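The data layer described in this paper is built around a simple, fixed record for each protein. We quote a single record here, exactly as it is kept in our systems:
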Amino acid sequence: MDEKLQIRKVLKGDTSAFGYFVDTYQDMAITIAYRVCGNKQDAEDIVQNAFVKAFHNLETFRSDSKFSTWFYRIVYNTAITETRGVGRNTEFEDYKMADTAYYSDMDTMTQIEENERNEMINKTLDMMPKDESVLLTLYYLEDNPVKDIAVITNLTEANVKVKLHRARKRFAEIASQQMRI
């Protein structure tokens, strides 16, 4: 669906057209917020607040970037603002697997291996510093280019590349430690 058309509809008063953006970006937005705050309930609240902010500021969206980049920056900034200096509970939850996907073509062993791999990835990401976890999530799970991640996180492209490199190394170290346990 053409996002520019949906934006025009919302701006002309068809508020129900905004549902497209909620349906399209909610899961990754929750993942990003969760990576920052470490708590499912807080992540959901942050995403709800981010959608409200995006809706009220939609007229400020410039089409020179993707809507997802603009929106994920709102999510990221909202999460940083709402978690700054506040101690939070952390609970492990894989939002991609929260609805327990139906595996019609996979046999039981493949399902188990896939679940174990996802659990290990999420556990490793949870053990990492929040900023590194967010960068890896944006780059690998959402397939955002470095340029877009720089916009979302308000870092330079060079800084994103350096932090991604460090995050990959830390991920590998933590994952290999987890495999030994």
Summary: The CA atoms of residues 61 and 128 lie 32 Å apart.
